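Appendix C. Worked example: Copper chaperone PCu(A)C
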Amino acid sequence: MPRCHSFRLRTGGFARRLGAAAAITTLALLPVACSNSQTASDSTAKAAESVSMSDQWIKAADSGMSAAFGKLANNSDKPVNVVAAASPASATVELHEVAPDGAGEKTMRPKPGGFVIPAHGSITLQPGGDHMMFMGLKAPLRTGSETPITLTFSDGSTTTVTAQVRDFAGGKENYQPSGDTAAHGG
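Step 2, the predicted output written as structure tokens:
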């Protein structure tokens, strides 16, 4: 419910000298002083509170690069945008997509704008598709171990999930650097 600040309209002094025009102008400005009792950030849940991740896992690797996968679900009425990720397991984590390059080959590259999770919907991060690319692993990722991943949303909120490290042979996914640091998947 809106909360309005109370103002006393004075009929003497300045308003009386300027006459009715001043009083009308003053009254016209009064609605501007009313505000919602909640701030914008209070009235809209933070993205981190609306998103959950399930079946999150990261590919086992000795060094170099790896990738994390899982299902991101949004239970809010608005789309939510994951704009960054981080983990103590690697120097950097990039949000990647697999898309055709100029020659029609599939290539992994940073996804412009990050991952958009539709309102009351979900997206699946999977080998050969959208994923979180771990670059510059700080230590081997051994099968059965776990590593935290912190997701950052466009509203600045964050959430941390824990991903299990799993063996994955995959199709043609290559999560190791190549000559141009682009990996190809299939």
